[in-house]
């Protein structure tokens, strides 16, 4: 490391199987989107840009910060096979595993990692007790090219077991100590130019930067944060690109992230002097607009991948007079899409807990992976909203526990285990008011339940209700339910529940008032 070294870094994160271009809401582009030039991303545009950068700039490296899996029919149909093909072909140098890589369990992730020729990194996952994963994940890798050694350290959010299907054997720890351990090991190997690739979120990456030393740059993901220096054009930017943080040594560790879906590709120029001190680190993410040509051979491959599921997904099953977005509108209050999914669950009740039970439908905002466009509703729309292989379960819950659950959502913290609640409640068959100015666990009032005749009555603490939700929620996902229930019979896939419901009602109707009525 005794010679100065300059390099270019390309980075992506949270692609969520967006192989083809997409609309503003992350679903397939319509003719209108194309006419209005509001399609973005797609790996054919990423290929155009990466080829251009590699042809014109020195010493180019490429990193991905996780969540390649889940979000479109490309994943539902191919389950990661084409993800490995794409990442291998694009010449990524390293990849940090994201939480969604675990959505189909560790054995499925292992199968993907064996196909992937890119080092998969995570310093804070202990795989020792999970036979499927042993030897497939490294804490760090030393990249030796361009006559230089660059250490890349990976880490993931410690909340991963709460939000996906990691199984009982993997252990996830706070990243600070494992990252520092990896950096110290790299120093012993004579590697002093170190970059982290992280699937942990923008805010927590800042905490990791403050709590470690020896890291020049953290390339992040998970929080879908756009970092940009032009916050007039992009008022939604979460911070500057790069974001500078003082680390334990009083030096600067920089943080970057490139929103999500491949709408943006990160682009950094950086260098070190002969003493391994950063001389510069700057850049700007590149937006993958329609002004960037799609690389023809790559787009041909994407079109070919589409063929098997395209005909099936184009079948129209209903109509929605209004667009129902997912994402931000569903994260802090009741939203139309949340109500639609919750009501489809409520109406899917099989009577397993008793035919006369009053039924509640429940879904969390993170279980809604795409929005519903205005107009024709297709099979593809539904499969984009529910790409997971999660299933419907019917869970007994008494009035007291139901109110506790609503309090957990209103607080963002679990009343009994004290851990963060990592999603927001969307439901049907329940009405409630939440006052955020009140102390936690005393915010929810006026809880009413709709009985099977459509009449509303105050919740009864001792009555047992039937809650229809996903197996993910019932078994403790997102840390919402007061008490985990692993003994439930798994029924239909959630995608089938929603398909059946839309086919039945034909026209999607959502009441004006849904979910929590928020005050203060």
Question: Which key phrases capture this entry?
Answer:
26% helix, Purple Acid Phosphatase, chain A, domain 2, nucleotide binding, Calcineurin-like_PHP, globular, 520 residues, 25 strands, metal-binding, metal ion binding, 5'-nucleotidase,  domain 2, single chain, alpha/beta, 7-stranded mixed sheet, 5'-Nucleotdase_C_sf
Oligomeric organization of the protein chains: single chain
Helix content: 25-40%
Provide the CATH top-level class of the largest domain.
Alpha Beta
Structural class, from secondary structure content?
alpha/beta
* Biggest sheet descriptor: 7 strands, mixed
Rg measurement, Å? 24 Å
Domain count, please report it: 2
In angstroms, what separates the terminal alpha carbons?
Answer: 56 Å
Quote the CATH topology of the largest domain. Purple Acid Phosphatase, chain A, domain 2
Average per-residue pLDDT, rounded, comes to: 95
Shape: globular
**Percent of residues in beta strands:** 15-25%
CATH superfamily of the largest domain: Metallo-dependent phosphatases
Q: Provide the CATH architecture of the largest domain.
A: 4-Layer Sandwich
What is the tally of beta strands? 25
How many individual helices?
A: 14
In terms of per-residue confidence, which ranges show pLDDT below 50 for 5 or more consecutive residues? Answer: none
């Amino acid at each position: 490391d005794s010679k100065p070294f300059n390099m270019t870094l390309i980075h992506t994160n949270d692609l969520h199987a967006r192989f083809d271009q997409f609309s503003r809401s992350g679903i397939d582009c319509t003719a209108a989107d194309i006419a209005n030039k509001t399609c973005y991303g797609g790996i054919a545009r990423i290929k155009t840009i990466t080829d251009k950068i590699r042809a014109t700039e020195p010493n180019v490296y490429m990193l991905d910060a996780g969540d390649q899996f889940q979000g479109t029919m490309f994943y539902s149909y191919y389950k990661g096979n084409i993800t490995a093909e794409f990442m291998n072909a694009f010449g990524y140098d390293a990849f940090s595993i994201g939480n969604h890589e675990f959505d189909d369990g560790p054995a499925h992730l292992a199968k993907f990692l064996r196909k992937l020729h890119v080092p998969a990194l995570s310093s804070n996952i202990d795989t020792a007790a999970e036979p499927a994963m042993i030897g497939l994940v490294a804490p760090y890798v030393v990249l030796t090219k361009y006559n230089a050694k660059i250490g890349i350290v990976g880490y993931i959010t410690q909340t991963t077991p709460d939000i996906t299907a990691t199984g009982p054997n993997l252990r996830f720890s706070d990243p600070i100590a494992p990252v520092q351990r990896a950096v110290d090991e790299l120093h012993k190997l004579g590697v002093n130019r170190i970059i982290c690739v992280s699937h942990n979120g923008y805010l927590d990456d800042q905490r990791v930067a403050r709590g470690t030393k020896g890291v020049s740059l953290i390339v992040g993901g998970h929080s879908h944060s756009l970092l940009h220096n032009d916050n007039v054009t992009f008022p939604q930017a979460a911070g500057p690109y790069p974001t500078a943080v003082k680390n334990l040594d009083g030096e600067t560790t920089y943080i970057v992230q490139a929103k999500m879906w491949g709408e943006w590709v990160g682009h950094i120029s950086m260098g070190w002097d002969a003493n391994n001190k950063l001389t510069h680190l700057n850049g700007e993410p590149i937006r993958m607009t329609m002004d960037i040509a799609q690389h023809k051979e790559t787009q041909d491959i994407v079109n070919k991948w589409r063929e098997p599921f395209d005909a099936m997904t184009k079948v129209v099953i209903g109509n929605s007079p209004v667009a129902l977005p997912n994402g931000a509108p569903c994260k802090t209050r009741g939203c139309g899409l949340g109500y639609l999914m919750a009501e489809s669950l409520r109406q899917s009740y099989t009577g397993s807990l008793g035919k006369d039970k009053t039924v509640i439908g429940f879904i969390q905002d993170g279980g809604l992976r795409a929005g519903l466009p205005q107009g024709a509703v297709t099979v593809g729309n539904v499969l984009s909203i529910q790409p997971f292989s999660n299933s419907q379960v019917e869970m007994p819950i008494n009035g007291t526990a139901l109110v506790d659950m609503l309090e957990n959502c209103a607080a963002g913290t679990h009343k009994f285990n004290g851990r963060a609640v990592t999603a927001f409640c969307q439901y049907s068959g329940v009405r409630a008011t939440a006052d955020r100015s009140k102390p936690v666990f005393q915010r929810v009032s006026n809880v009413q339940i709709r009985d099977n005749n459509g009449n509303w009555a105050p919740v009864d603490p001792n009555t047992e209700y039937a809650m229809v939700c996903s197996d993910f929620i019932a078994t403790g996902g997102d840390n919402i339910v007061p008490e985990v229930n692993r003994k439930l019979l798994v029924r239909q896939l959630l995608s089938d529940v929603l398909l059946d419901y839309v086919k039945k009602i034909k026209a999607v109707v959502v009441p004006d008032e849904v979910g929590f009525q928020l005050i203060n």
